Predict the structure.
Amino acid sequence: MTSKPSKKKFIVEENETIDDCLQRMSDEGYFPVRRTEQPIFKEEMKENMVENVPCGRKIVFEGKLV
């Protein structure tokens, strides 16, 4: 029988709420110890220059095995 890793990262998917992700963590036997957010950018042309414009965020939870 293989054991689970003591830490695991869970990404909040595009069509998933934070509560859904936390429930998924709990179902797998993990509890959240850290939350990080990373901005998502897209490139847009403005005045003949490329600008990085924020268009969303990526939320990642680090879970620890119960």
